[in-house]
Amino acid sequence: MYFSPSCFNDEVKKPGDTVWKGHKNYDLMLSLQLGIRDSVGKHASVCRELRSSDFDPNEKIWTKFPAEGSKFTHPHQSAEFRWKDYCPMVFRHLRELFQVDPTDYIMSMCGHGGLRELSSPGKSGSLFYLTQDDKFIIKTVKKSEVKVLIKMLPSYYQHVCRYQNSLVTKFFGVHCVKPIGGQKTRFIVMWNLFCSEYPIHERYDLKGSSHGRKIDKPECEIDETTTKKDLDLNLVFRLNKYWFRELLKQIDFDCKFLEDAGIMDYSLLVGLHFCDNSTNQLHSGKSELYQIEKFLSGFHFLEAEFGNSNRINGCQKQPIRLGANMLARAERITTRSAFNQCGPGGGNHSIPFGGESYDVILQFGIIDILQDYDISKKLEHAYKSLQADPTSISAVDPKLYSRRFQDFIAKIFAKDA
Fold first, then answer.
1. Which residues form the PIPK domain (predicted)?
2. Helix (H) or strand (E) holding 62
3. Domain around 168
4. CA distances (Å), 247 to each of 170, 190, 244, 364, 373, in order?
5. Boundary (domain end) residue, out of 191, 212, 247
6. Residue 6: its pLDDT value, please?
7. Measured at the alpha carbon of residue 362, what is the angle toward residues 401 and 188, in degrees to the nearest 5?
């Protein structure tokens, strides 16, 4: 999962609790920050091409961090620990590819404000931490997930180099902390795709499956931080023809990469910012905001830089690219089953609309890409197939998962007429 609300709007309460001294995970946080500062700083000045050996699963660097400091490390207030850096040169190049400045990265991860821990772990039991500027997410992961990522790292690197508009998760590092006498904690650093000045008003985790894909919460407990699922979605997102074409093309490239890597169970995480949320005003037809986005996209600008002082419909204009700050119209459908009644291709004429239309800004990307179709998922598929339609469950083989996922994307996004 990814979390939001806003990188720049101080009026929006940021999620999570800051990990101060005395917090049960304070030593872990301090160890993470010390290790990242050391490893990023160590490789920031190294300028050389990547070698095949840099991708070797055994390319790991262990560093000991005694509390009193050493020849290679600074003294610190945490207990002594060991730090493992996985394929450090590869991630150094990835950070450069993703245009992350080493100094800015260290300031985000290791600034005086500390990290924020999300109060409830994810379904997998992982812990999530956010940097104070909301740019990066640190997620604790299982050893099996680290193995999957390191195994796919060569193809992942090639993929994101070739497709700079790829919607797959941006990874910045894989590390491990081992306190003396304690257990190992492995974690990955990722980009927070909801990091935007636009607060997220609704969010959806979409897999293209239906079995169990509805939130189990009473209406009174659903708020802006609730992540809804496939069966909760009753909107279609209309993009102009250029962005719609680019989206389907990139989804095809990304799903082919994930399928070849044997990955399944990933999601499209979608965040919606309603431009007229303050007045809850509905629109019919095309707004000025949407027309401007269409004009810009018509010139094939992948990034459209706007002045900070200009606002339209209450939305400050920001750089636009695939999956980030995308202006669209969200149209209400009359029945939820409409998604299942139409074929792929955007549902241009198949889905019955209710006429209500919202100007929205979309943030979206493909997340949770570290699950391969291992024996546990095969057993899950076999078990759930006895209870429900096998095609409706999330645990299916990567080829079927990819095809179903792409079909669903082509239904919830539509080309503007």
1. 22-413
2. strand 60-65
3. 17-191
4. 17, 22, 5, 11, 26
5. 191
6. 42
7. 60
Q: What digits encode the pLDDT tens for the residues 56-113?
A: 999 999 999 888 888 888 888 888 899 999 999 999 999 999 999 999 999 999 887 7
User: Contact, 163 vs 170, CB < 8 A?
Assistant: no
Query: Are 235 and 136 part of one and the same domain?
Result: no
Under a CB-based contact definition with an 8 Å cutoff, are residues 67 and 79 in contact? yes
Are residue 257 and residue 117 in the same domain, yes or no? no
Number of domains, the chain: 2
Q: Band of the pLDDT at 122, cuts 50, 70, 90? A: low
The confidence score (pLDDT) of residue 16 equals: 65
Are 169 and 214 in the same domain?
Answer: no
Q: How far is the C-alpha of 35 from the C-alpha of 320, rounded, in Å?
A: 34
CB 169 within 8 A of CB 268: no
- How far is residue 111's CA from residue 92's CA, in Å, rounded to a whole number? 20
Q: Is residue 255 part of a domain?
A: yes
Q: Which two tokens stand for residue 249?
A: 């093309």
Contact 365, 206 (CB under 8 A): no
The C-alpha atoms of residue 184 and residue 165 are separated, in whole angstroms, by 35
Helical (H) or strand (E) element with 59: none
Last residue of a domain, one of 191, 211, 229: 191
Q: Apex CA 221: angle with CA 220 and CA 222, to 5°? A: 95
pTM for the structure as a whole:
0.82
In angstroms, rounded to a whole number, what is the distance separating the alpha carbons of residues 269 and 191? Answer: 13
Chain segment 324-380, per-residue pLDDT in tens: 999 999 998 865 554 554 444 444 434 445 568 889 999 999 999 998 876 776 676
CA distance linking residue 50 with residue 56, whole number of Å: 12
- 276 or 36, higher pLDDT: 36
89 to each of 43, 170, 172, 255, how far by Cα in Å? 7, 16, 11, 26
